[in-house]
Design a protein that fits this description.
The relative contact order is 0.16. The longest helix has 17 residues. This protein has a domain of 70 residues: S-adenosyl-L-methionine-dependent methyltransferases. The protein contains one helix and four strands, in the order αββββ. It is flat, with a radius of gyration of 29 Å. Helices cover 15% and strands 52% of the residues.
Length: 111
Amino acid sequence: MRYLYLLGLLITLGLPAAAQSPTSPGLPADSVRYWATHLKAGLNANEALLSKNWKSGGTSSLGVSLLFNGTATYQRGVHNWQGEADFLYAGQYSADGTGYRKTNDRLYLDT
């Protein structure tokens, strides 16, 4: 008997979904694309936590880097253009008293 009630409930809940009319089609999408773009981004973090009892020495540190890479390509007929951009920034915080230091940076633009 429980299964019959469950089946009735499922049918009742499914009827409004089947009764909806289809939506009208919108404007057609532009089928010709002259630009192709790509963007990649990355965030990296690393940590080295060393105990004071460790005899080999070393200091604890925390490092973070941020990377963006983008490309754009235009092609229409005999005309084409390609560009690329790279941005990288990285830093490290050391517990040995030196504090925060920039470890890496990059700005690369190519066309």
